[in-house]
Every structure is written in C-alpha cells, then in structure tokens.
Amino acid sequence: MSDLPQEQPTLNRANTPSLFPVVPGVWGRRDVFTNLYYVRAQEQPVASWVLVDAGLPGSGSKAQHSAEYLFGAGNPPAAILLTHGHFDHIGALPHLLKLWPDVTVYAHPLELPYLTGRSSYPPPDPTVGGGAMAAMSFLYPKAPLNLGIRVQALPADGSVPHMPGWRWLHTPGHTPGHVSFYREQDGLLLAGDAFVTTKQESALAVLQQRQEVNGPPAYFTPDWPTAQQSVMLLAELQPRIAATGHGIPMQGVVLQQELRRLARGFEELAVPAQGRYVGDSATADETGVTYVPPATGRQVPLWAIGAGVALVAGLYWLRARRPTPSYAANPHREEWASVR
Fold it and tell me: H or E stretch including 167?
C-alpha cells in the first residue's frame, strides 16, 4: 500500500490509470518506469499549474491528456520545470512545446548544455547496479535535446518561476545541473533522481515498485562524491513527503529515517563496488562535459541485456493498452482537479 496522505481525493482509475496523488494539488504520473508531476501552483490572482519533468520519448500525448484531465483543455502550464535533462525526464517536450508555444522550460544553468544541443552527458555505465535496467542502459538515447530559446536558467536566488512558496536546491552528482524542488510549508520534496524510492537498476524492483530509499540510478551517475553531498543536503531538510523520479512517493518517519540512513552510509549503500565513475568522476562546466574517465572493460552478461529489453518492451506494451484519460469523462473535476 502506498504511504501517501489520506486527505488527497480518490482518482477515477478508469480514466486515470497512470496518475497518483501526492498531496492535495500535486499529482504524479508514472510513465513506464519514470515519473512526472503536475503541480497546482496558485489560485490567485490567476489559477495556474506547473509541470515538473516530462517523461519518456513518445509519451507526449499521454502527458497532454493527463494535464487536460486535471486542469481542463486549453489550459497550458505556467512553466515546465526540469530536475535534469536525461532522456526519461524530457521525452514529452517536443510534443508539449509544439502544443504549448508560449510555455518556457526552466533548468539549472549547468544543465543547459544538454538541453541546447551543445553537449551529451557522460556515457552510462551498464556494468554497475547488478540489474537488467542497468545492463541495457547503453541502449538508452544519448543525443542532447536542443530546446533553443525555449529553455531558460532558473533564477539565481533559488525562487521557482510561477511557484510561490517553493525553492530549488542544486543537487548535482547524478547530473551537473540536477535540482530538487522543496516547499517548506508542508515539507514536500520533488527530488528528481538525487535519490529514488525504488532500486531503479533492477528490473524486478521496477515491476514491484516497493517503497525504499535508494541512491540515484547508478548507471547514469558519473560523480559519486557530489551525489553523496546532495543526498546529505536533502536529508538535512527532513522532508515530510518525497516524490522522486522513480518509485512511489514516501512520507513521514520512515522516509526521514531511510534518507538519513542513506546519507550516513552512502558509500556502502549507493556507490558501486567498482565501475567507470567509481574513484574517477566525470567533470563538466557551463559548456558541458569536460572529462570522462576511460571505460573499465568489464562486460555485461547477455542474459541481463535480454531481460532488460524484454521488461521495457513489456512495460511499453502495457502502457499502449491502457486507455487514454478523457477530460470530458472526469466526474471529479470540480471536486478535486479544477484550478478555475
């Protein structure tokens, strides 16, 4: 059972198969094996909402229909916020930015090279993590997305555009410009992949979605010492609720205890015993990647690659069979989703 606040109204599961409540006014959407979030930003003077992250390639229409279900057709977000620019967090952007021509995307300045076509991320390391999801990471899209002038830097003062009461925190390590979003009023943390609440490297864990605090996905993390510092920073916040890029949201004492445990034992619990970026981190600056350590030469078992491909193909098949949410069919819109 999900450890979620009970006051959040119940979704109509016939029309929202991938949506889940986080807290009142915040909903998540699971896109195969990654999450994006819809946040009701404010009611006055103008009702508005914000999208945090954008899921997998090919998910644009699903993300659109979920937005229409929650906030009404013809009501674009005030902004799109990115925790980082990995392919599983930006995949719907080409579709959504055509649909919403006046919407700006915001990211950390150190993330902009990977969102304006200037640099690719360091190569993933498929030899770490010991699971099928990690083993097939060499197949994941690597080319940067070029959003041009549609993407802008987050404000230097830590404020979040169109999100009163929120602040962004620089939480690098998984990527150079990774950020998390925090609302002190209720202790809600949107942590991206700074830490996650499932063991993302494992195909079985991805299917089971058991709630547990884990480090950032190992196969895409090129700077482990910095990632540890970011987890320590977030643990110090003592968030009451955490919604991450992968896994089911967690809350309360269990979340805080597990996050502190991860921060204190990060090297044993999160850092691989060996790997391309273990002991020799990739480096980057405002222009993009500046150094990538050499590959270790270790080989990934063929069975792990096959298992990962089969899993992801199966998850995509299940997603394709799910009905598209219909805005018109939402009987609870005025009760829990309206921002007007």
Answer: strand 166-170
CA–CA gap between residue 287 and residue 302 (Å, rounded): 36
Q: Pairing between strand 34-42 and 79-81?
A: unpaired
| Cα–Cα distance, 207 to 235 (Å, whole number) | 27
| CB-based contacts of 287, cutoff 8 Å, min separation 6 | 113, 118, 119
Complete domains list, the chain, with CATH: 19-274+300-335 (3.60.15.10)
Give 325's DSSP letter. Answer: P
Question: If you search the block for the tokens 């009461």, which residue do you land on?
Answer: 165
Q: How far is residue 209's CA from residue 339's CA, in Å, rounded to a whole number?
A: 31
Spatial CA neighbour of 44 closest among 168, 164, 159, 161: 164
Compute the distance between CA of residue 263 and CA of residue 322 in angstroms, rounded to an integer. Answer: 38
**Digits of tens for pLDDT over the chain (340 positions)?**
344 333 343 455 445 568 999 999 999 999 988 999 999 987 766 679 999 999 999 999 999 999 999 999 999 999 999 999 999 999 999 999 999 999 999 999 999 999 999 999 999 999 997 767 677 777 888 889 999 999 999 999 999 999 999 999 999 999 999 999 999 999 999 999 999 998 755 555 555 567 899 999 998 999 999 999 999 999 999 999 999 999 999 999 999 999 999 999 999 999 999 999 999 999 999 999 999 999 986 655 555 555 555 555 555 554 455 543 333 333 333 332 332 2
Angle between helices 224-237 and 252-264 (to 10 degrees): 150
Distance, CA of 241 to CA of 118 (rounded, Å)? 35
- The residue count for the chain: 340
If phi > 0 it is left, if psi is from -120 to 50 it is alpha, else beta; for residue 192 that is: left
- HSE of 225, CA atoms in CB hemisphere, 13 A: 5
Is residue 109 reached through a cis peptide bond, with omega within 30 degrees of 0 on the bond before it?
no
pTM for the model stands at: 0.85
Helix (H) / strand (E) containing 289: strand 288-291
Q: How far apart are CA 195 and CA 52, in angstroms?
A: 16
